[in-house]
Records
---
Amino acid sequence: MLHKTIRPVVLLLGAAAVVLPLLVVLFGTFKTLPQLFDSPLSPPGSPTLDNYRRAVDEGGLGAAFTNSLVVTAGAVLLTLVVASLAAFFCARMPGRAGWAVFGVLVAGLAVPAQAAIVPQYVLFDRLGLTDSLLGLVLVDTTMTLPTAVFILGAFLRTIPEELYEAAELDGAGPLRAFRSIALPLTRPALATTGIFLFVMDWNDLLYPLLFVRSQEHRTLPLALLDFQGEFLTQYPLLFAGVVIASAPVVVVYVLLQRHFVSGLTAGAVRG
Amino acid sequence: MSSTRSARSRRATRALWLFPVPALALYLFFFAYPTAQAVQYALTDWDGYSTTYDNVGLRNFTELATGDDVFRNAAENNLKLTVTVVLAQTALALLLALYLVRTTRASTLLRALFFLPTVLSSVSVAFVWRFVYDPDGGLLNSGLRAVGLDSWQSVYLGNPDTAVFWLAVTQVWFHAGQMMVVYVAGLQAIPRELYEAAELDGAGRWDSFRHITWPLVAPATGIVVAYTTVQSFKAFDLVLGLGGNPPGPALDLLSTRVYTTFSNNEFGYAAAQSLVFMALIALLTWVQRRALRRAA
């Protein structure tokens, strides 16, 4: 009996705890600081787009948005190509070799990125890859590879052997088998993995923070973090930055919610 | 016939060896090799730009173990954060999952809502919560004032004794929904007949939970606890957004310590710190896997 009344209360409180701060942020982007402090919860009375304009112009979020787009698209595509090739090998190679390569690649999941940052920085710097978008694409690809191989490998192993045998009888080599059997059948897993990688790469802060020195190469999270120094307590401006940085992920999330959940949970299961 | 087939399949197998080459090349060159190099750097006093440095043996490590109060403080903060987040997040995720496990329109919507924060960037989440905690016009304090609880107002992140706790609250807000989804999957795998049988035997709600739900959802608990531990142990971005770059002592964690040492051009010392950090994560994961296996 008691349970029946507690349940909606808990759920309502939980929902409010998620929605209220986000709503305050969204409304806040159209307010001035005094308006925000005065009545944080109320919808904007006389909405202004000034915060967005300043976030883009003074905060450099426009250029950062383009950089994030380039780096994320590049890293997601490269990771999917490289990881699906490797996962195909792991699933198709007879004997221990397949599992050995899988083990090596997936071992990276247990190692935190911070373990390698010092030598990684030195290596990328010597190759002239720090402070460049290409460097970020390469490092993001490397760091998300284990996750991608893990999810795609598990999925590729579920494809029945008979399909490949039939293709082999027709004279198909591994590349044909990969292109005309594995890839089409893996499309849902590729989509899920791609979305998961998109969230990871779009939100990555560590590597831009370490590698990027010049303003023109900043990605969104880094440009946003730099707001701290410039606009310390200019909350409406910070909020406009938050909305600009989050809009693409939230839009994709609303459209493809099911894939998000399976992708991020598959990522969680790695421990 | 059979010999040409096996010849072809041998050729095919040989071609297959090319498939993992790009992945292995990237991974070994840009990650595995630098990780191994960290060991070498950790034994030096290299500053990152000089062409010369000295091998100092284990000095960096003895310094970390005995003389570095800043590192010890960060480790303590990390421990507090991890324990708080693991307890709170596991309990909350399980509670929400129990309430939302059945698929109705409302529960599907609520699940999506609780999951939403997970996809935001940590810097965005940090900025949202910076406003929530702002002592002057922030959401918490103005809310407390509005309902007449003025005396409950606090400086939150400004109080070194409680700052880590408020960081934990933010972290739970950020990721509880993701762990809820793991629990929902675990709960959905429990056969309903078990509950029906228990009910026939006169078991109450609590009995069912204790004797059916809790033991059978143990694998999901294992995943949630393991993942949450590593996640809060690695917390980094959130701290830079909430506590500043670099964060003060109240919010300093091992991850931010490695980063700050590195930024100060103490490359050798930072490498040593990063190895200790990695070893602690490995140890924690191992201990907790064992503990959970025994519990399960």
---
Amino acid sequence: MKNESLKLLLPLIAVGLCCGADWPQFRGPLTNNVATSDAPPSKVDQESIAWTADLEGRGASGPIIVGDKVFITSTTGFKQDQLHVMCFDVKTGKRLWERQFWATGRTQCHSKMCVATPTPASDGKRIFATFSSNDVVCLDLDGNLLWIRGLSHDFPNASNSLGMASSPVVVGETLIVPVENDDDSFTTGLDVKTGIARWKIKRPRVANWTSPAILKAAGDGETLVLLQSNDGVDAIYPETGETAWKYEEGAGRIPSTTVGDNVLYVPSKGLTALAPGSSSEPPKVLWSEQKLSPSTASPLFYQKRVYTVNRAGVLTCANPENGDVVWRLRLKGPFSATPIAAANHLYLVSEKGLLQVVQLGEEKGELTGEIDLKETILATPAIADNSLFLRSDKHLWKISSK
Amino acid sequence: MKRSRFLLCLMFLFSSLTTLQAYDVKQDIAQIKLVQKEGQGNLAASKAVKQLSQADASALIPILNSFEGANPLAVNWLRGAFETIAANAIKQNKLPVDQLEKFILDKSKNPRARRLAYETLIKVDPKAEDRLIPGMINDPSVTLRRDAVQRLIDEAKSLEKASKKDQAKKVYQQALSGATDDDQVKAIVKPLRTLGQKIDLQKHFGFLSDWMIVGPFDNSDKKGYDTVYAPEEKIDLTSKFEGKEGKVEWKSVNTEDDYGIFDIAKSISPYKGAVMYCTADFYSPEEQSLEIRLGTPNAWKIWVNGKLLFARNEYHRGMVLDQYSVPVTFKPGKNVILLKLCQNEQTESWAQRYQFQLRIARPSGTGVLSQKPESTTQLSP
């Protein structure tokens, strides 16, 4: 019965996963950092800035794009307890609307973090904005409030004194919100229409800043959501929160698992490539390679290659079949934002605000352009409208071809 | 005759519509205020907020009034509707600015509602800031007061720069009377002390500085967090206990730190895998709802008059002022606070802190002192 029901839901799930050229959540449509149909500029300079919009407060959350609108979050106030959701016009950068709410959970964060660190998500009709205070706000695309939840208000020990950073993902009718911390640690699946929990599962009691990844079904298989923690990776059914299979060899708590060609690249023992498991079979470890250990930025799989950026700012390109290094390129780091890819290029923005574009080749990567935005940027950029969208605390930029 | 009948019908219709809208607004607000934890009431509230958001500007003041008695979740729902209506009213140039200003100036109204009204008003009337904020220095709204304090800090700095030290001192003193946010307090206290003013920051913030403490008890493998040691069962300051390292007994300790930090590791011993119990009394002249505000990098439990208020099993993720705010209702007279503080066995340099700071404050952040006149805190005889 369950499988039958899920088969009926597959078209809906497909709709949830494929929002055309939108960038509807952290790390893009498939949470793999890749834009499939957009081509941002391959050579960039200061003249590539199509528009700049002013922002208030603080935010390390990335922009998301749905249709002709860009959505972004930030927080203001001495205690950073005023939560903002803002909407801008993709073409002009004009602010279309802004809504504010008050945090109902704790807002304490490490000085490098901030309350608006999780990137919002969208199912194409609704915007789901989450914050370190574990407040979850659901608005329609015009800024009308649909529902709001206060997960730390409901579960007061669900918090982290360094701040919560995990971004939610939406699959079909379920918004998956990780609230993983040292005390009351859980992940919950909220009904997108009401905000009421469809399920809530206990998670390892240790602070965790990773974000879920989507393992899209091959053929008629079921789409799974990957929850990474100190213990490893749990693949869960988004409708029920039930576990499909587990990888139990431990994993990092900052960079997140990414998926490419039905292989998981897990920040574990450096980097571990994993073939998905099933309810009867555990996942199979294909290889592990310490040299590919990612720092804060998540790994990237693109055009049959896997990429990581280390603490020193070195971009490493590796063979996804065995983890062997193919080429390395020293960039100007450090990086908090995850690299993103489109049209045979990687786009990396350093913490100091230097956007670097790398053209990919078989034997080497080549830096083809850079723009110094001169502001601290921790957020992963977005790609849509053949452009890049980046944000600092102060500004949102659109970078396009001239 | 026919014409007057027509007009009468029209008036009746208009009056009915107005009544209907007023009724709907009231009903929608009431529905939204039923929202509870874990999404209870969300379905009905979603419908209500959608309907309410379409109301005209006449719904703005009723929504602000409804903040009173609404839980923090409902307040956010109400704010969502308010902002949508206000945005439309601004576009149509129909924002009821006079009513908003009257609402802001009425200190009996909900502080958050007043702040929201203020932020909405200054979108169309930026000059309202100069008109309203200077009178907010002792306002019940934390954020309106903060803005008023900031104006005084800026004024005092200018006076200081102009070498008008006595005037600067007076303005800084006035600013301190309203300051509760630590960044502002620091910005005031440093120049005031330079100008020769003595300031008791412990008193300003309401820190408890005198404690009785006993321990260590065993917290190897973090097992002490859930172990009920004798002080949890009964506080008898004359008792002796079998501790982790032999017999232990209550001893009096205090701190002179500006921010009430009592450092167990430095002042007593850098215990590892340890539980310490700390107790202090707080005298209240009447029953009052306040907050215990605690900062600690260690795991903790807290009881007031024998009742467990909150517990947090987290180690070494930082310590800041007001890290945790725990609501508490104090009874008239003596109230006994018991804090259980657990240190783990981690060996990293950043995991060696064993300390806490605890103050009593109003929800607005203003420190509240124990009312026994001899000192800020008095221990039981």
